[in-house]
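Support reply, case 0932

Customer input (verbatim):
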Amino acid sequence: MNNLANLTTMHVGGQAKNLVHAKTEAELIEFVRAADQSKVPVLILGGGSNLLIADEGFEGTVIRVETSGNSYEIDACSGGTITVASGEDWDSFVDFTIEKGLANLESLSGIPGTVGGSPIQNIGAYGHDVAEVIARVRAFDRINDRITTFAAADCEFGYRSSKFKSERDRWVILDVTFQLRRGEFSLPIQYPELAKFLGVEVGARVPIADVRRAVLELRGAKGMLANQEIWSAGSFFINPIVSSEVADSLPIEAPRWPQTDGRIKTSAAWLMEHSGVHKGDRVAGAQISSRHVLALSNSGNASANDIIELARVSRAKVKETFGIELEAEVQFVGLSLD
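Our regenerated output:
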């Protein structure tokens, strides 16, 4: 059986017409190349943590990336350079870096998914994005049938975006090279929530292992870790970045994080909670998590259509109340919010 629900963290989705498992880089390229030559639709699947697949499934080839391995060099002064295969589990990789005494990934602990998915979405948490530590990305170019290496500056990283996301049907991530700092202490703690949990002031630096433990505990309390009893894709919507005029129209207590371009980032969770979206709200088998309003979840028997409808209702309430249209962080396959 090619049941895709078993391969996603939301546990929804229909059957794949064809499902293959790429254990090596050569297999991954060959599977993609063969499907493209046959004009067969392709879905590249990593950890399935940022994905909502239609109940009708996928009428094409699903390629599950299961490549593994890494190579690294660690210098006492300059830090560590680590190249990691795209199929490696993200949080296991973060744990590996902490064990090696390498800093700057500690605040990204506990994010479900694979290493290959990290540059596509430019994953981030608690004030830091993975783009800050990526040195290079190797990818297979499906249009020109060749491998291309991108320096970080060429990846077009933005808030939860990248070249690989905007051209998702072109690039297949093969591996990612990270440049990490050697040291026992974290980057300055930027988020008040994390600082409070650690018992320090905003801007303080603390041992990287302590930051990892705190982030894992905070994410766990929100139901945002993989393999928990809550079936979700983590944060369903991204925090909107709005003009200063729109930000000025929000209530004074609304969170505001100034951006370098003069715009303001605010909290999607705050907007939802203050527009009438509540933890526990349901549409059939879909439910707003009881732990965090951004986690739209499968209560056990949800269909993809249930979850989409719950997302539509939630987004409409925010639009009506604040005039801001939330953007989904989750990738849709065979579905749309519009």
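We compared this against your earlier run and they match. Two observations from our side: The first strand starts at residue 16 and ends at 22. The radius of gyration is 20 Å. Please reopen the case if you see a mismatch on your end.
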